[in-house]
Fold each of these.
Amino acid sequence: MSTPETERVRRIWEKLAPKYDKLIKFPERWLFAGGRDWVCSQATGNVLEIAVGTGRNFEHYPADVRLTGIDLSESMVGIAKRTAESLGRQADLRVGDAQALDFPPGSFDTVVCTLSLCSVPDDRKAVGEVSRVLRPGGRFLLLEHVASPRCTVRAIQRILDLITVRLEGDHLVREPLVHLREEGFEVERLKRLKWGVVERVAARKPIVARPS
């Protein structure tokens, strides 16, 4: 069942969808350059992209992956479908909630998430869902802006966070690695850039389940 905060975020992204590509261009050049390719080029097999947005990752995937994408915003999904068509990319694109993925356990070899956990109301729940739908040994590939380890930078982020969460549902001081480790993911590759604000992660779900 959708929460009031999830519905608020859905409305925000419905409004932002038509202008998202224009708004993200500068941050991608300044903060996230090369990040989409770093993440998507590692994807293999049956791939799920959560919060697929307008499909900005599509051109970076290997040609042989089988791509499924979900997004909370119907308008975003509509744009993503047009992007896929323009690139000749086959993809199953649908409206969906990262906090409650409508797929059986172990459905995917790879899950990709770029610049999106920051806007999921309950990012802890989303990471749990990623773990559930990944097969044992599957990989979670992540590009995100996160809380900087530098005290001065983090202090600025906390101030800005008061504004961005209220206006855009965008959280600036989250730490996804904490949730990944709680779920038992094994971090294979980790890069922190731009004063530690940008994080690139390649993590693997253990083949052997953790004891309960």
Amino acid sequence: MNLNPQILIIEDEKNIAMYIASILRGASYRSEFATSGICGLNLAASLCPDLILLDLGLPDIYGFEIIEKIKSSSDIPIIVISARTKESDKVKALDMGADDYITKPFGSGELLARIRACLRHHQKTTRSCTVYKHLNFTIDTDKRLVLLNEEPVHLTQIEYKLLCLLSENAGKVMTYSSIIEKIWGPFMDDNNQILRVNMANIRRKIEENPAQPVHVFTEIGVGYRMAENDAG
């Protein structure tokens, strides 16, 4: 598996959102966009994007409030893209947790360079275990690869993030609620069904016999535990 980063655009002007999406598509990024703050928060919770491009001037929620809500529960990097040029707005956004601030109008080259820099910085600061290995199963977060018997495993973005989270806590039981909060955020209803569906899909892809797993175990009524990391 080798997924290109997914970027969420939260921008109320649809033509601008589609323009940004076309820039991202040309650079091989995957993208989704929302034209309201509520929709943006819901997509951020469900998609777990690698990066968010956020306009401050939204019709329903102040962009600053979105920064606060997302950063209170996740470390998803946020680049503000706004027509507001006041230094006070830039300082406020950055102090609230935004990772960068670009003013409109902007060039495609500048936007892509800022995205690359932000993703690089985020990967360096969040990577805790670059290689997880157990028996015939490997996760290499440096290369964004998941291998079974040395063959790539094709996963969705959510499945990949679930496996990375479990591998970072290998040997420890992670409760259903803690996994849901870390992957989908606090805006997701505390419903284990979406987690169970994703874990069942993961097992079909990485376990030779999903009924008798050797990599990811269910602690009934509590959560999930990944086998100890053989790579140390």
Amino acid sequence: MAQIREALNQDFDQIWKIFQPIVVKGETYPYPRNTSKEEAFRLWIKEVHKTFICVENNEILGTYYLKQNQVGQGSHVCNCGYMVSAEARGKGLGTLMCQHSQKVARELNYKAMQFNLVVVSNVQAVNLWSKLGFETAGKISKGFQHPTLGYVDALVMYKWL
């Protein structure tokens, strides 16, 4: 059974094996498709509040970060990003990590969670976040440049915790 724990810097080599193929595809994250390993480390580990990994049999199957979405008067809202390895998709890890992230967010005194850019063509994510109680707060028309579909809409999804 998969367990979630806080990531350590030395976990990043395994996280990179999940991060890099997802970002290179360019279908779900706005990061440049040629994001370097060093830049990915900065984005996923260094510039966030916490990073977690989903581990089974000493193998990292998924990862997520949790960070403050805004400063000052918006600092009560956090933001998360989730990635699951291609081999582990469809096993409920996205649900497990999202539920875990909401628990951690509450422990850190965040009052809400917001996903800033959920690509509408990522139907699994849209459906999962909706199932887990996230509402669509807005739509950014043609807010994401998909590598094969062209400009597609992106959603801002939000949940009061």
Amino acid sequence: MYNIKHSIGVFVTVFFLFFSGKLIAQERIITTGVPFLLITPDARAAGMGEQGVATSADAFSQQWNPSKYVFSEHKSGFGISYTPYLSKLVDDIFLANITYFKKNTNRSAWAMSLKYFSLGDIVLNDLVAGTIIEQGIERPNELTLDFSYSLLLNSKYSMAVAARFIRSDLKISSDLDASSANTMGVDIAGFYKSDLFDFAKKKARLRLGFNISNIGPRLKYDEGGQKNFIPTNLKVGSGLNLNLDSNNKISLNIEFNKLMVPTPVPVINKNTGKVDRYEQPDISFLSGIFESFSDAPDGYTEELKEITWGIGSEYNFQDAFALRAGYFNESLEKGSRRYFTLGTGFSLNFADIDISYLFSTSRVRNPLENTLRFSITFNLDNPQLTDEDG
């Protein structure tokens, strides 16, 4: 049988190879299970350096900071997005997302979303009398289904919690144990939006946000096999929005991310006494969260290298047309993802359409390089009268 035994290992290894940039034994790159959770699902955020924890509310806030929903100028809406992955190599690997939100009152809102990641088709063949015979096609995939509730604590600050079901089905049917791996994750988020104030002779607004996402048990694919941490992640960001005049607005944003997953530990070769490879430590997810801030072998210097950052801006004309740009940076020793992004958006009577594009500045090829990403938002009501400044 020409198939992939224990294909989970192959798929995860290949995915890490492209997503993290490069996996070299001497480099302590943090890897997790279900890394598709770290792929930006919507084109608006993707166009601003892949950030959204402190930007203005939109339908896709569920993926960044659900506590923003209570500040939305719409009472309800839903968004659909599509992201081709490794599009220069294959045409059947993609990330799709659908998100719906609804404000119950001016103080609370709820949202739910489905995220689906397809790893394409795998053809299973059998060799019979020297002839290869096709036995079927498998479609490994991963998905999440989540629900959030957000509450306005006062006129400027809100918080939210979210629960997420995670399913990873990467095995093929001929494996002895072809069951999927399942776990749960929890998000805790907060958002602050100031009143308008004077800044450089313009009206401005400050936004601050944080989100601790995917807090949950490790994934386990095989009985007795290694458990994989899910990508528990801390996002912290801020944004400054300026009303240039009644028609023109601009926002400047910055965001920092830290994977709350332990740094890989060395495995010593018994024969040579040297480091053979690095792998995840066998500890609980709660211990991993706390240890992730102080377990890097090179101390504080290496801990700082595990923090990624991005900057982005958005220009809006008459709330009908937007231009976006951003930059994302990761340490050369921790994955080497570095790239510029561009994006645009159009508001129609019935929907908002967003498009983004990515230019890699790293020597390591990015799986989303030269790929167009699309998302569309359907606002199910007219905007409420507000002093919102985008």
